[in-house]
Amino acid sequence: MGALVLGLIAGVVCLFFVTSIKNMFGYDDALDVFGVHCIGGIIGAIGTGILVAPALGGTGIMNYEIGKIGDYDFWAQVIAQGKAVGMTLLWSGIGSFIIFKVVDLLVGLRPTMEAEREGLDLTDHNERAYNM
Asked: Which terminus of the chain has a lower count of CB atoms within 10 Å, N or C?
């Protein structure tokens, strides 16, 4: 049941990001990767730390040192989930930046203005997308 509630919350927040926040800041995200995957992932990861609480029907946190479910501390778990989210954002952000720089040096990130005007289907793939 907690997963359904978490999914509903994430769905509403993701919808808000792809409809309002993207337009407000004007960033280019044709497939809504940031608004859905990044924001939804953050909500899901932090929400999992909340929903694992035995009081909410969760399984608790396994203590592998003693081989049984340990004591659940709400704030400790939410902080641990937040640290994991932060590390994931850093890892993917830095990794993407390095990959973008390498691709930019090798082939460039943007086509020339002339290639865009002529059409990338013709200039990059040597074919027409539409025969009109």
From this structure: C
**First and final C-alpha spacing in the chain:** 53
Q: Which residues lie below 8 Å from residue 101, measured CB to CB, with a gap of 6+? A: none
Distance CA 118, CA 125 (A): 12
The CA distance from 19 to 117, in Å, is 28
The DSSP line for the chain is -HHHHHHHHHHHHHHHIIIIIHHHHT---TT-HIIIIIHHHHHHHHHHHHHT-GGGT----EETTTTEE----HHHHHHHHHHHHHHHHHHHHHHHHHHHHHHHHHT-SS--HHHHHH-HHHHHHSS-S---
How far is it, in rounded angstroms, from Cα 88 to Cα 61?
21
For the entire predicted model, the pTM comes to 0.78
Phi/psi for 109 (5° steps) reads -90, -25
| Residue pLDDT, tens place only, 120-130 | 888 888 888 77
The whole-number pLDDT of residue 5 equals 92
